[in-house]
Amino acid sequence: MKAVFVLLDSLNRHMLGAYGGTRIPTPNFDRLAARSTTFDRHYVGSLPCMPARRDMLTGRLTFLHRSWGPLEPFDNAFPEILSRQKKTYSHLITDHFHYWEDGGATYHNRYDSYEFVRGQEGDRWKAMVQPHWERLRETYHARQFSEEPRSYFRQNMVNREFIREEKDFPSVRCFAEGFEFLDRNRDADNWFLQIETFDPHEPFTAPERFKAPFDTGWKGPVRDWPRYGRVDELPEECEELRANYYAVVSMCDHLLGQLLDYFDEHDLWKDTALVVTSDHGFLLGEHDFWAKNRMNLYEEVAHIPLFLHDPRHPERAGTRSGALTQSIDIAATFLDLFGAEPPPENEGFSLSGMADGTERRKGALFGYFGGAVNVTDGQHTYHRFPEDLSKQALYQYTLVPTHIFSPFTPAELADIELSPPLSFTKGASLLKVPVIDRSPMYNNYGPGSLLESETRLYDLATDPGQDAPLDDPKLETAMTELMSGLMQANGAPPEAFTRLGLDIPAGVT
Which Pfam families does the UniProt record give (predicted)? Predict the structure, then answer.
C-alpha cells in the first residue's frame, strides 16, 4: 500500500462544486470527486490549527482537556504506529509554520522525514532589520500593517518581498516537493506522503492569474487579511477580501489538478490511496463574522470537505457517503489502509468502512478549549456554553506546558496540581494547570476571545443556514444526553461537565 494525504487549511466545503458550490469554479475537486468517495457529513473535532492536527494524528478528541499545544508523551501518532507495526516510511511536506513554534514542536518528528517550506503568514523566515516602512505603509491596508517587532503582520510583509513569481509561493513549492518525492519513490512500496499547505488560510495571497477572474475593481492598498471578529468593513472592502479568498481556493484547485494529473500519468490510482481534506472552514461574512475562534462554531467552520480514494475499492469511484464522520477518523483510516492495529485510546473509525454509508457513531463532538462543547447527530447541532465564561472552572492537563508562541508563564504555573492519570494517558499523571485571564491563550484562542456565548440548538434539515435557533426542550435534552455520553467516552475531566451545568456521570473522577 501507498498513500498520499493532502491537508489544506481553512478550505470551505460549501465553496466546492462537489458540494454544490457555484461561486468558484473548482474543476479539479470535481475530478477528485469522480475518482473517490465524497463524504457529505464530515465534521471537525478540536480547533483551531494544531489541536485539529493533534486529533488527526492521534485519533482522539483533545479540546476537552487541552488548548493549542504539542503532541504529548502519551499520544499515539499514526505515522509512528505505521513505522512500528508495518515499517511504513512516512514523509511530511508542509509550509504550516505552526509546527515549528512552541505549541507544535513535537509533531514533525513523528515522521521518518520532513520538508519545511518557508514563507507563509507570520513564519519567521526572511530577516529585514529596517524595511522600507513608507513604501510598505502605502502598499498594505492599515489593518494588515505593523511595525511591531515579532508581529505576524510585520513578518508577512517582509516575507512577501521574497515571493514574486508563481514558483515562489509556498503552496506551489509544497506540491513541487511532493512531485519530487513521488518521482523518487513512486515505484517503491509501503510509504505515506503528507502534502500539507497553509492555503487557503489568510492572508489570501495568490498569483495574479488566479485573482483576475474575481477582480472587484478595488483600487486601495493590499486587502487580503480579514480580522477575526464582526464585519465592520464597507461592502467594497468585504468583496475584495472575499475575492482574494476565491483566488487562493482557485490556486489550491489548480495544484490539486497537477496531483491528479500525476496520478493519471503514472496510474497511481491502482495502488495508491488518496485522502483530501481540511482542518476547518472560514467565515467570509456569514453570520456577520470573519474567520473563526471568536464566534459560535457554525456549519461554515465545522462542516468540512473530505474525499477518499481507496485503491482496494475501485468500484467506489464517484460515490458519496452520508455516514457521520470527523477528523479523528483520519488516523484510523491510514492505519486500516496499511493493515495496522489502532491503539486502545483511538476514538476514530476507518473512513473506508464508512464509505458505503455504514453509520459508526450516533454523534460527533467538536469545539474550542474553554468555549462551547458542540455536538451533532448529523441533522441537528447543539452548542452548549458555560453560564459565565469568566467564572468557569477550567484547567489544562498537560506534560508539555507550552502555548502557540511560548511556554506557560510562571503566573500560570504558580498554582498547578499533579493530577492522577486520565483514561487515555497510559498511567501518566498530569500537570493540572488553572486557566487564568493572564494566560497568553486566554484572549487569543481561549475563553476571553469569544464574542458569542449563547447556547443554541439548530435543525440543519429545515435551517441549513443556522438562522433560527430552536426552542425544543425535549430535543435539547436528547442532544445533552448524547453530548454527555460522548464526553464520558472521551475521558473528559469532571469539570468539563460541571462548567456546562451537566451532571458528572458515574465513574468520572
Answer: Sulfatase
